[in-house]
Specification:
With 156 residues, the protein is mainly α. It has one domain. 89% of the residues lie in helices and 0% in strands. It has four helices and no strands. Helix 2 packs antiparallel against helix 3.
Amino acid sequence: MEALLKTLHVLSIVVWVGGMVFAHFFLRPAVATLEPPLRLKLMHEVLGRFFAAVLVASLLAWASGVWLLGRIARRVVQAGGNFDMPWHWWLMAVGGTLMVAIFLHVRFALFQRLRRAVTAQDWPAGGAAMAQVRQWVAVNLAIGLVIVVAVLLGGS
């Protein structure tokens, strides 16, 4: 069971962080050459699909992480030990929870602004909304990369 949870956890992170790398460093610069109406329509469609996948991946990563921590803590306590999380697990737990919160803000507030602007063909408002989405995706990407590096250096 633990191997399955770890696999789901890691694959969820791969989808989420890998998707942010693709969107931020490859898709965004490529669509910058398009006119604002086409660029915003395309980004709206792509991000809508990506955010649907990330909603599942982020919640799965968070839930599997909590479940894994609970299983390990229970096993240590049942064996008579004291459960003390390593620093990189703390970083993973706190940082991952922060990333989910940021993503939910991006998905349910900022992306809705983009959707409304694209529907209304209000390209300046769409550009402003897209800039906010990009900014918060960059923040989440930075947090995610720090967590990945810390976990790899920390030995898990």
